[in-house]
Design brief:
alpha+beta, Jelly Rolls, 8-stranded antiparallel sheet, disordered N terminus, iron
Length: 394
């Protein structure tokens, strides 16, 4: 990295030992997701407030969170005596340390090898340099960078990931889907990330495999599109999904209730909810809302215009923009932001939520006794804030 302006900066033995110690503490190379059905904060999973259920009233959606004996909300008060889990009991936990070590590796390696010449990571003069560019500089010994030849390909990739400020994925396929870590019921399906199938009691999440570096003011622009498909019994649709930022792990979520977002703390999210849960202060079964720190108990929400039914099988385009003080959510039936509807604008302090600028962006989703397919078809993200949003050209 320092090679790019001819400034060699060799890792000291102390830095290397510090890095190795951090890796050992964080569980470098360890497997993720060995724990079954535990909450993201490492505590024992408990049924969410969506899984309370009033027998026979047909009104309260039930979502499993790894608990046993969830009550059915339909029929004449019949009780589901099974033990549904979010994904057959295989949902990985949010406190998994595997990708936390990736975060420490990228930032720590940058600090040891590059910061002396190129400023701290968030304001680096080499943002968006690729692994290939870094490797080429080392190979050519530009500015003495040959001294860093002991860096592995994985370490160089971690540095490049830490320097990245933009993601642009017009569709998901076998060549780019590895940008995201898929958890629980989430799978790659027809160039989409499918968070949940049209099955009861599933939960899935998809987060960037490596943390995304936000600038000192935490600004960002994001764009994605989504399609909520076939519904469950009597074509009832549930539950919805969350666009989420969190610093726990790329394997967070996918543990069941609360749209897969429950228990991820610290976190910030925008939920797209298709089922009315009175206990969550839901205004209706077709709304967006701001949610934080693993709770879907929201005070700031906005019903979606009656002309747009999010679960009607159509593809909807969303822009989420944060200027350091206010988050705005726009939606449209095309990818033209200039004609989109502003659904929500809310003042929020992301610095007050997160203590680090290295954040996992992604999505969580869940189903309960009612269900739907939930697909994300494209994803664009930048920390170089742009007035008017960031998205593919219409």
């Amino acid at each position: 990295m320092s090679s790019i302006n001819g400034c060699g900066f060799r890792r000291s033995a102390g830095s290397f030992l510090l890095f190795m110690a951090l890796c050992l503490l964080a569980g470098c190379g360890g497997g993720g997701g060995g724990t079954t059905g535990t909450a993201n904060n490492g505590s024992t999973a408990t049924p969410s407030n969506e899984s309370v259920g009033t027998p026979g009233n047909g009104s309260t959606e039930t979502t499993s969170n790894g608990g046993t004996g969830t009550t059915s909300s339909g029929g004449a008060g019949a009780t589901n005596t099974g033990s549904p889990t979010s994904n057959g009991g295989t949902g990985t936990t949010g406190n998994d340390s595997t990708n936390v070590s990736v975060q420490a590796s990228g930032s720590t390696l940058y600090q040891a090898n590059c910061q002396g010449c190129h400023q701290p990571l968030a304001s680096s003069t080499k943002l968006n340099k690729t692994a290939a560019e870094i490797q080429a500089a080392i190979t050519a010994n530009t500015g003495g960078m040959g001294s860093l030849a002991t860096l592995s390909a994985g370490e160089i990739q971690s540095i490049a990931d830490a320097l990245k400020t933009t993601e642009a994925i017009p569709s998901f396929n076998n060549t780019n889907s590895d940008v995201f870590q898929l958890n629980g019921s989430a799978v790659l399906s027809n160039n989409n990330i499918r968070l949940t199938p049209n099955e009861q009691y599933t939960a899935g999440s998809a987060f960037l495999a490596n943390p995304f570096t936000l600038g000192s003011n935490f600004v960002f622009n994001a764009y994605f599109n989504f399609t909520l498909g076939a519904g469950g019994r009597s074509n009832r649709h549930a539950d919805g999904f969350v666009f989420a930022l969190q610093t726990v792990s790329s394997k967070a979520g996918a543990t069941g209730g609360n749209l897969g977002f429950g228990g991820i703390n610290p976190s910030f999210g925008v939920e797209f909810d298709t089922f009315k849960n009175d206990t969550n202060n839901d205004p209706d079964n077709n709304h967006v809302a701001i949610v934080t720190n693993g709770s879907v108990q929201h005070a700031a929400f906005a019903p979606v215009t009656p002309s747009v039914i999010m679960s009607d099988g159509g593809t909807y385009h969303v822009w989420i923009d944060y200027d350091g003080a206010t988050v705005e959510v726009h939606m449209n039936t095309t990818n033209d932001r200039s004609t989109s509807n502003l659904l929500l604008a809310q003042t929020i302090d992301l610095k007050g939520i997160f203590s680090t600028q290295y954040v996992y962006f992604g999505f969580t989703g869940a189903t309960g006794i009612d269900s739907q397919t939930q697909d994300v078809g494209a994803f664009y993200l930048t920390s170089n804030y742009q007035t008017g949003g960031f998205s593919p050209a219409p």
